[in-house]
């Protein structure tokens, strides 16, 4: 099973000091967090894609390409690649290039994002979000698998005899997760292609996540890709840890209360009860994360959000040390012991797919 972190790349004032990092600092700090993730023994670093303040990761492939040059083992991913407002031809080119630079250590998560104004900025209509996601991914899927593509759709100009370059590394397209918080159409899309489904599980109660994952698993089997239990599932989550849970709650509360996404709403206690947010000791994080299996089944990737809401870099790096030393080793062992034979432990990423083709 793969464990890692994802970032949304927000530039947020630290509520305890009143200091706001510059965009330069936030970008450089994001690189430092990724490097620390590899040092801590985590498997994955994923960045979001945003084109509006207070966020900075508007160019994920630039950021991940730089991180690729400074790491050796870390899988580089996205926690959203905007399939609706990016041109699928450019996605095909950019992520194939990144795949070559990273020697195959690349996958990506397709999503629609949650920022409505981005659509007109890129010449699109938010009311067409689902049809855009379906059509654009159909084209991207073909661009990575066919050397010469003829295409005609509703949302972009037609292609005739087009070849996307570079071609995917070793002829193996990057693995794709389809990320969704609330849209069953996206779970259906992931199942249709036999791709992964990532339920970014940080805003909704477990009953909703359970329904979405169950739908994906059922439809994955319906399309003949394997049993429901063999479907490839990822989950998001958010944690903040200290040795004593009381210290964790006391330290994290001002950041939660002023967070740009969920601040000034439900209390920390309410949000922790209704969503996967876990603020407490490492043991509490272990127990809460293991409980996700009770309602989604055995899954392949767990990503944690740990750098949101103005948390200073020093604190984030401390969180990574705790994850790497106290939490992830236990989770690896426990999830492996529970996983039945025949259920994949990880997504079919480039090295495994290439090795299978060479047999």
UniProtKB/TrEMBL annotation:
Name of the molecule in the record: LLM class flavin-dependent oxidoreductase
Organism: Streptomyces gulbargensis
InterPro entries: Bact_Lucif_Oxidored, LLM_FMN-dep_put, Luciferase-like_dom, Luciferase-like_sf
Cited SUPFAM superfamilies: Bacterial luciferase-like
Keyword match Transcription regulation: no
Keywords noted in UniProt: Monooxygenase, Oxidoreductase
Keyword Oxidoreductase: yes
A Pfam match: Bac_luciferase
Span of domain Luciferase-like: 1-294
């Amino acid at each position: 099973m793969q464990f890692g972190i994802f970032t949304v790349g927000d530039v947020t004032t630290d509520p305890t000091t009143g200091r706001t990092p510059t965009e330069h600092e936030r970008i450089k700090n994001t690189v430092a967090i990724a490097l620390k993730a590899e040092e801590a023994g985590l498997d994955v670093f994923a960045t979001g894609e945003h084109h509006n303040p207070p966020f900075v990761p508007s160019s994920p492939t630039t950021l991940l390409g730089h991180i690729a040059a400074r790491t050796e083992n870390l899988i580089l991913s996205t926690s959203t690649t905007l399939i609706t407002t990016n041109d699928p031809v450019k996605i095909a080119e950019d992520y194939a290039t990144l795949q070559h630079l990273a020697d195959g250590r690349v996958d990506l998560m397709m999503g629609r994002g949650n920022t409505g104004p981005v659509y007109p900025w890129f010449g699109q209509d938010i009311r067409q979000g689902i049809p855009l996601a379906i059509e654009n991914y159909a084209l991207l899927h073909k661009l990575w698998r066919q050397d010469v593509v003829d295409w005609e759709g509703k949302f972009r100009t037609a292609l005739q005899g087009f070849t996307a370059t570079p071609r995917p590394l070793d002829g193996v397209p990057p693995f794709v997760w389809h990320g969704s918080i609330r849209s069953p159409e996206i779970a259906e899309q992931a199942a249709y292609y036999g791709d992964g489904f990532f339920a970014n599980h940080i805003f909704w109660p477990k009953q909703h996540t359970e329904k979405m994952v169950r739908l994906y698993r059922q439809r994955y089997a319906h399309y003949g890709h394997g049993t429901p239990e063999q479907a490839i599932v990822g989950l998001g989550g958010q944690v903040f840890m200290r040795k004593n849970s009381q210290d964790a709650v006391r330290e994290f509360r001002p950041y939660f209360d002023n967070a740009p996404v969920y601040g000034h709403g439900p209390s920390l206690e309410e949000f922790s009860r209704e969503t996967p947010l876990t603020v407490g000791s490492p043991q509490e994080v272990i127990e809460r994360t293991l409980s996700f299996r009770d309602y989604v089944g055995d899954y392949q990737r767990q990503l944690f959000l740990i750098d949101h809401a103005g948390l200073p870099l020093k604190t984030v790096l401390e969180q990574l040390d705790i994850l790497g030393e106290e939490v992830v080793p236990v989770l690896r062992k426990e999830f492996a012991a529970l996983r039945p034979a025949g259920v994949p432990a990880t997504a079919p990423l480039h090295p495994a797919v290439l090795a299978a083709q060479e047999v």
